[in-house]
């Protein structure tokens, strides 16, 4: 169902089975307790920073340290990590790092069915989804498999303190995009709408705290909770119009993931909001703003968010072609019909960074 359906409610919602353990400064203690609970004997640690991971794993025995983490999980890295796990008789994967480290652990779990404990150090949210991604010469392939969903997530906000302010804001805005798009994605329902609006509240409060003071632990905790809620909502609701646009732009023009999301989101919100009044009202309320777009814009200004696609590598002469590439991916559930002209207008506005508030009125 869509969030704005006026008929009686009918939906199938699957709540993923995950243990979510949360506590600043508690990662080492929580990890040791989880390893004992699972009776794991042969642990493969997938880490993007060996120094940072050392303190967290001080209380457990690690059979193999594996730090060959790269963005978007190149297929050769995935195959090598699978071979290492197989050769070392591994019975548990522990990943410590951003979405790229989690992604590599998921690639191993996809073929080995090994359980994962994920300890995220960014706000990407991959730890709360059953979505995997692997990149080969033909591009990034993604899929859904419950075997890649980490059985346990350990959130320790102290591990995100070293994440630079710019990366924190970009990663947090990406999480915000999961929340907004979840309101009209193909499997949108009242349960994931509740997760998404709670995520918007947490992110809208925590991100300005981090932007003002990257050492604000309370702000970091709020954004971690927002990241989890956003990913849980997104995983359940699926990809909506916003994610489809960004996925095509990223793949076809090699545009940076977080910045592309940060620029495109207000234009998709401005486009869809008039056709999704209930979702728009819920988003506005979560932002504490008069309208959804006012709330998003105020936050983006406060965070000095990226504004225009022209700054991130989209060639102007490709806009018409990009609109044609995107159109087949727009989910039929989108609250407003979309034509290739609509997409071209949206991309032109996002390219130039014009005020999204009334760009299509
Ligand atoms: P990333 O994991 O590549 O990390 C970005 C950079 O930050 C890296 O250089 C990393 O070493 C560094 N870093 C990580 N934590 C740090 C910390 N605490 N302090 C300092 N530096 C730190 O990037 P990401 O944004 O976390 O993840 C992006 C990837 O995750 C993409 O491939 C994206 O497609 C994927 N992703 C997947 C899902 C899913 O559901 N499968 C969801 C979200 C993102």
SSE layout:
Elements: E1 19-22, H1 27-38, E2 43-47, H2 50-56, E3 64-66, H3 75-87, E4 92-97, H4 99-112, E5 116-120, E6 131-136, E7 139-144, E8 152-155, H5 165-182, H6 190-212, H7 217-237, H8 241-253, H9 257-272, H10 277-287, H11 292-303, H12 319-326, H13 340-352
Parallel strand pairs: 1-8, 2-3, 2-4, 4-5, 5-8
Antiparallel strand pairs: 6-7
Helix pairs in contact: 3-4, 5-6, 5-7, 5-9, 6-7, 6-10, 8-9, 9-11, 9-13, 10-11, 12-13
The structure holds nicotinamide-adenine-dinucleotide (NAD).
The site of nicotinamide-adenine-dinucleotide has 25 residues, from helix 4, strand 6 and helix 5.
List its traits.
361 residues; alpha/beta; 6-stranded parallel beta sheet; two-stranded antiparallel ribbon; 8 strands; binds nicotinamide-adenine-dinucleotide
Would you kindly provide a written description of the structure presented here, covering whatever features stand out?
This protein is an alpha/beta fold and 361 residues long. It has 13 helices and 8 strands. The chain has helices at 27-38, 50-56, 75-87, 99-112, 165-182, 190-212, 217-237, 241-253, 257-272, 277-287, 292-303, 319-326, 340-352; strands at residues 19-22, 43-47, 64-66, 92-97, 116-120, 131-136, 139-144, 152-155. β6 (131-136) and β7 form a beta hairpin. α5 (165-182) runs antiparallel to α6 (190-212), α5 (165-182) runs parallel beside α7 and α6 (190-212) runs antiparallel to α7 (217-237).
